[in-house]
Amino acid sequence: MKVNFIKVQDVLENYKSSVYEKNVERFLSTYSPEIHIYDCWGNWESKGISPWKANVEEWFNGLRADGVSLHVDFNDLVVEENLNLAFVHCAVTFAAHDIESGEKLRQMTNRFTFGLRNENDSWLITHEHSSLPINMETGKGLFNLR
To answer: What InterPro entries does this protein's entry cite (predicted)?
Structure first.
């Protein structure tokens, strides 16, 4: 699936809507085939679109099995770009809602950094880093500090 993301904001809007719709192919269309990801879930890093696709499929299948829709919001968004490269950092809130009742079940906020490259007049994510601050006494991630 080839989608032309003219603006960096198009990439972020696609991220939000494809997560909500659990559309793996459209979600992955925002990523470079050579994506390099530092994720705070399970794996230290992921290199290339194939392992990232496996992670996304597992994530979306888990959401389907739980019967939830996931709403994504980008907060404190900073975008710096030139003609070929863009740098984005923000807080991303993921809120799970029961599909039938619409009730919010849970939410969490992570810190995200995206590096994007303009390829063939379209923006693609080439690097993504998500993180959480940790509690130094317990070693556990701190959710929802924002």
So the answer is: NTF2-like_dom_sf, SnoaL-like
